[in-house]
């Protein structure tokens, strides 16, 4: 399976508004109180993110080169029917962007040619002078039970020589060095919004037309959480969010789970997915984050870096609005 040639697909870069960290701290400190009872936001050096519970393959989210958000492909390559030609080599993307030292972390489809079936990808990959460290996981839907009549899931780590992904993805691209970032700790959810929606909507309300993007990681320390895991590709066209919900497999999973991904407060005419986080865990629970299901026990801690630009790679020409939740 040949992967997409980056010299032959459109790659557009647009700058984001980068506010001072202190302004983001002020805005989130006030705004997140609508959704969580306890809110602590600060600008500080991130801890070593290679350690538990984050387990990134690089220690930080900043560095000399500007932080960028990368959006690859999009839901129109999955829906209504899969585009099997949309396989992307992420190591090749980093070479194309001339990033010899980089961390790429976030949410997307995983490499179906490796898994043999469609899968979730929790992307967590670094390169240092051309050498790949692969901490990415994939999650597949698996039949369980004696009759194999019900569905479970299986999380696996990709080997270092498997640097492909497919269809769609939202990643933060950074040097992966330690540095100052936004730390957000919230507890006891009292509002409707999920953790990321609460952050995004709070920022959007304050910054308006000046589009702000964050990339980073968070951990849900306690309670339970609703995920979806994509099963193998649908043979029949999925033409609406209702069709999609009937096809996806939803699971309630257990904390602690660490997540990586991106959020952006506007679309900038780039057909962006405005938020997307996937998580993995030591106990095998992983997938696409929707929201916690035990609000009184919700306890999130996250580290986020403001991005200087969005890199839009191979955006679908014919697009649609579903499959973005
Ligand atoms: Zn997803």
The CATH topology annotation reads as 60s Ribosomal Protein L30, Chain: A
Q: What hetero molecules are in the model? A: zinc ion
The total domain count is 1
Which architecture would the CATH scheme give at its second level?
2-Layer Sandwich
Helical run tally: 5
The percentage of residues in β strands lies in 35-45%
**Biggest sheet details:** 10 strands, mixed
Radius of gyration: 18 Å
Helix amount, in percent? 10-25%
Relevant CATH superfamily = Hypothetical protein, similar to alpha- acetolactate decarboxylase, domain 2
Mean pLDDT: 96
Sum up the overall morphology in one term: globular
User: Distance between the terminal alpha carbons, to the nearest Å?
Assistant: 29 Å
Are there runs of 5+ residues with pLDDT below 50, and where? none
CATH class: Alpha Beta
Kindly state the number of beta strands: 19
Order of helices and strands: EHEEEHEHEEEEEEHEEHEEEEEE
In terms of structural class, how would the helical and strand content be classed? mainly beta
Description:
There is one protein chain. Helices cover 13% and strands 42% of the residues. The strands form 2 sheets. Strands 1, 3, 4, 5, 6, 7, 8, 9, 10 and 19 form a 10-stranded mixed sheet that branches. A 9-stranded antiparallel sheet has the order 2-11-18-12-15-16-17-13-14. The protein contains 5 helices and 19 strands. It has 325 residues and is mainly beta. The protein has a single domain, classed as 60s Ribosomal Protein L30, Chain: A, CATH 3.30.1330. It is globular and about 50 Å long. The two termini are 29 Å apart. The site of zinc ion has 4 residues, from β16.
């Amino acid at each position: 399976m040949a992967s997409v040639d980056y010299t032959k697909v459109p790659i557009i870069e647009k700058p984001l508004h980068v506010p001072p960290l202190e302004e983001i701290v002020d805005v989130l400190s006030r705004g997140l109180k609508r959704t969580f009872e306890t809110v602590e936001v600060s600008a500080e050096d991130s801890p070593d993110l290679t350690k538990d519970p984050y387990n990134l393959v690089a220690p930080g989210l900043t560095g000399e080169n500007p932080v960028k958000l990368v959006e690859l492909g999009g839901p129109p390559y999955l829906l209504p029917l899969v585009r099997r030609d949309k396989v992307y080599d992420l190591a090749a993307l980093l070479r194309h962007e001339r990033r010899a030292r980089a961390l790429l972390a976030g949410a997307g489809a995983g490499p179906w040619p490796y898994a043999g079936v469609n899968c979730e990808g929790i992307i967590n990959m670094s390169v240092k002078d051309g050498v790949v460290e692969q901490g990415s996981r994939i999650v597949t839907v698996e039949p369980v039970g004696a009759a194999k009549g019900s569905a479970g899931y299986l999380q696996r780590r990709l080997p270092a020589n498997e640097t492909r992904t497919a269809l769609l993805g939202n990643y933060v691209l950074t040097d992966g060095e330690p540095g100052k970032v936004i730390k957000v700790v919230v507890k006891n959810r009292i509002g409707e919004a999920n953790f990321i929606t609460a952050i995004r909507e709070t920022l959007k309300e304050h910054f308006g037309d000046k589009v702000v993007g964050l990339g980073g990681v968070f951990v849900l320390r306690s309670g339970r959480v609703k995920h979806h895991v994509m099963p193998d590709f649908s043979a029949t066209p999925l033409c609406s969010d209702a069709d999609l919900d009937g096809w996806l497999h939803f699971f309630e999973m257990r904390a602690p789970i660490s997540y990586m991904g991106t959020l952006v407060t506007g679309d900038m005419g780039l057909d962006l997915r405005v938020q997307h986080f996937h998580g993995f865990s030591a106990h095998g629970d992983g997938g696409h984050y929707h929201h916690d299901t035990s609000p009184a026990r919700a306890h999130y801690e996250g580290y986020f870096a403001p991005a200087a630009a969005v890199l839009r790679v191979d955006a679908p020409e014919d697009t649609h609005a579903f499959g973005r939740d």
